[in-house]
Amino acid sequence: MTPLTKASSTHESHVLYNLAQAKINNNKYEEALGHLREALAIAPDNPDYLSTYGYCLAKERESYDKALELCRRALKIKPADPDLLVNLGRVLRLSGDFHAAHEMFLRAWEKQKGHSGAAAELCRMGVRRPPVFTFLPRSHWCNKYVGKIRAKIERLRYGKIVG
C-alpha cells in the first residue's frame, strides 16, 4: 500500500466517522452503525470508532455484551481518553449498571475537567444521597422506602411540587 492510499483511507474513515457522529446527534443510530462499520473496515483498531460503534450497538440493538467488549477494547488502546470513558459509561448505564456508569463519568470528568459529555451524563444521573441507613445496602427495602419518604418530606419542606 502506498502512503497516498493509506492517507486517503484514513481520510475516508474520518469522513465516515463524522457522518456517523452527525447521525448520532440526530438520534439515527442504525444509520450511524452503517457508517461506523465502514470506517472500522478501513481502520479496525481506531479506538474512537470502536467505542462509538459499541455505544450505537447498545443504544439501537441492545447488544450490551458486544458493546461493552468494544468500548473496553477501545479503552485499552487509549486509556486516558474521556470520550471513550463516557461512551463506556453510557453503555453501562443502558445495560442497567448505574453504579459503574457513574464511576466512568466521574473518571472522564477527572481526566478532563469541563468535559461536556461527562458533565451532561453526570447531570442526567443526578447526585445520589447517601442511604438513610448506612449499615444496610442501598438496595435494601428499608433504604428504598424510607428514602422515598425522606425525599417527599424534603420536597414539601422546601416548597417543591411533590411528584
What can you tell me about this protein's structure?
- The chain is an all-alpha fold and 163 residues long.
- The protein has 2 domains: 126 residues, Serine Threonine Protein Phosphatase 5, Tetratricopeptide repeat (Alpha Horseshoe), CATH 1.25.40; 35 residues.
- 74% of the residues lie in helices and 0% in strands.
- It contains 8 helices and no strands.
- The longest helix is centred in the N-terminal third of the chain and has 23 residues.
- The termini are far apart.
- Domain count: the total is 2
Q: Tell me roughly what share of residues is in helical segments.
A: over 70%
- Describe the global form: elongated
Q: What average pLDDT do the residues reach?
A: 88
**Percentage beta strand:** under 5%
CATH topology of the largest domain, which one?
Serine Threonine Protein Phosphatase 5, Tetratricopeptide repeat
Number of strands: 0
Radius of gyration: 20 Å
Layout: helices, strands, pairs:
Layout: H1 3-25, H2 29-42, H3 47-61, H4 64-77, H5 82-95, H6 98-111, H7 116-125, H8 141-157
Keywords:
74% helix; 163 residues; mainly alpha; 2 domains
In short:
With 163 residues, this protein is mostly helical.
